[in-house]
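Aim 2 progress update. The chain analyzed this quarter is reproduced below.
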Amino acid sequence: MAIRNPSQRVGVFVDVQNLYYSARNIYNARVNFNEILKAAVGDRQLLRANAYVVRADMPEEHTFFEALDKAGFQVKMKDLQTFYGGAQKGDWDVGISVDIIKLVSKLDVVVLCTGDGDFVPLIEYLQMSGLLVEVAAFGKSTSSRLKEAVDDFIDLDENTKKYLIPIKGFRIFHRNGNANGNGNGNGAAGGEGGLPKKGLKKS
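Predicted C-alpha cells:
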C-alpha cells in the first residue's frame, strides 16, 4: 500500500463509463461517485478531479452531469459516435491520458478510477516520472495487470454499501451476505446519463 500524507497533491480521474458498467453488470446498481472521490483523496490536497462522460442525448443525462458537478468534479464530455451500420463508440482513454500527462509536474499522486488494463502503459510512464499511481475500481471487473502495476488499489467491492446506490426494485448483496435495496440514488451522483449501451472493457 502506498504511503499517504496530507502534503500530497492529488489528481482524480474518473472513467465514468467503466465504473458504471462494472456496477451495473456485477451488482445491478449505480455508483456513488461522491464517496469514491472522498476515498480517493482522503486527507490529502485535491488539485484536480475530472469525470469523463459520453453524451448520448438521453433524457436523464443532464441531471446526472449536474450531480457530478455538485460532487466536485470537472465534467468532461464528448459525443457518442455512431458509425455506418449502427456501431457506436464513446471512450475517453486517450483524453484521460493526455490530461494526466499535462499535469505531471503539478501532482504527487494520480488516482485513476477505472478497471481498464489499457491504462497500464500510462501508469508505468507516470511512475517513471516520479508519481505515485493509485486505482479505485471494482476488483471483480478490474484487469489483473492494472492491479499489479499500481502503487495502491482501492477495491470498491470491499464496501458496496458505501460505493453503490441501489436501483429501485433491486437488492445489492454485499460481501457479508446482507442485502439492501429500494433506493433511488437521488443526489449522490449515481445516475445513468451519458452512457452508450455497450459492454464492459476489462483487458
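The domain at 9-181 is CATH 3.40.50.1010 (Rossmann fold). The two ends are 23 Å apart (CA to CA). These observations will guide the mutagenesis experiments scheduled for the next reporting period.
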